[in-house]
UniProtKB/TrEMBL annotation:
Keyword tags: Acyltransferase, Cell shape, Cell wall biogenesis/degradation, Peptidoglycan synthesis, Transferase
UniProt-recorded name of the protein: Ig-like domain-containing protein
Organism per entry: Kitasatospora herbaricolor
PROSITE patterns with a match to the protein in the record: LD_TPASE (PS52029)
Keyword Electron transport on entry: no
Pfam families reported in the protein's UniProt record: Big_10, YkuD
Amino acid sequence: MKPVQAGNAAIRRTNHRGRRGAVAVMMGGVLLLGAACSSNGGGGSTAGGGSNDTAATGGATGGAAAPSQETPKVSTAVLNVEPKDGAVDVNPTNGVKVGVTGGKLTAVEVTDKDGKAVAGTITPDGLGWAPSGALTVGMAYKVNVQATDPAGLVSASTTTFTTLTPAKTVSTNDNIADNATYGVGMIVSVKFNKAIKNQDAVLNGITFVASDGTTVKGHWFGSQRLDFRPEKYWNPGTKVTIKYRLKNVEVAPGIYGDVDKDEPFVIGRSQVSTADSATHQMTVVRDGKSTVLPVTLGDAKNPSWNGTMVISSKEKVTRMNSQTVGLGAEYDIQDVPHAMRLTDSGTFVHGNYWANPFGKSNASHGCVSMQDVQGGSDTSVAGKFFNDSMIGDPVTIKNSTSATVKPDNGLSGWTMDFKNW
């Protein structure tokens, strides 16, 4: 038998009990199968150009079967994988899509360079697939896809791509220190140094896990501040973990988050204070035990805000200057003792050594102040309250002639109904 001459045809012969085996011819990507022949007399035959053997017809025996050609069937399922093979700088948020026409997807596997699988699901109709979350920035990925057509024939694809490495990121900062303890009214406030356009994506990238199952919701104040709180005050002793997953989130066009980390903190004992502008008294309820303290609040010209505020910082001694809060040259006290900030607009709970209106009248410029001495004393009313208080303790002012404090003035989000939060 002479070998078939057909370009780059591949020929394989196998001898078995003196008979030549099948001839496999691959030409132009098409597999050609022909049956080899032999004669009982040991003579040869010519493949491709003709044969001296008689074709087997009817009941004829001993002759050779005529050569035949068969083209393998090709699946009608056409795969569409995005991004294309070898793509770079792929958007990690929505850059991967898999689809098929003329068939149904049976398997989709996307893995990173370390072999870690990307979560995703095939659509119920079998025509598409997408990842369930954002991919990692600056990562190489492989995509393996299989589909079948109505006849059961398989179509497969393997491609690779690399996600982009962000040229710009946003700075993310909050008011929580790792493993610190806060009061039951603590509101977590996250601030960004650039305007956030994709606010829902950022909101989904910051989650809370509380040991008692408390649900926490976020609320945007503008485009650069996102506050979180539960519906009611935290339960004492609750352990909370903030999970930041923002590095793969496009927070604005071409700008990505800068942090992936877990941040734990703890809620301490319960202390809730209510200052009454009408009675000049403040009731402090700590773990169920009440104490009443004489105080003075904002006068008629400078009434205190109504509503619930939260202690956001503590200073043993600080300077208070009326010009910093828009009150002109009203005052400039260099050494205000035991100061605890309630609002960004300048409301504090603090000690007062320069007057004595406590429990009798309202004489402040809007703050809640109580008896103290110059330099501050741990045994004074203000000193004891200062030492018993922590960041996150809520302080409510009622019966003032002023309006209710806005929810974004300090950590005053408790003034907003949770259904609107």
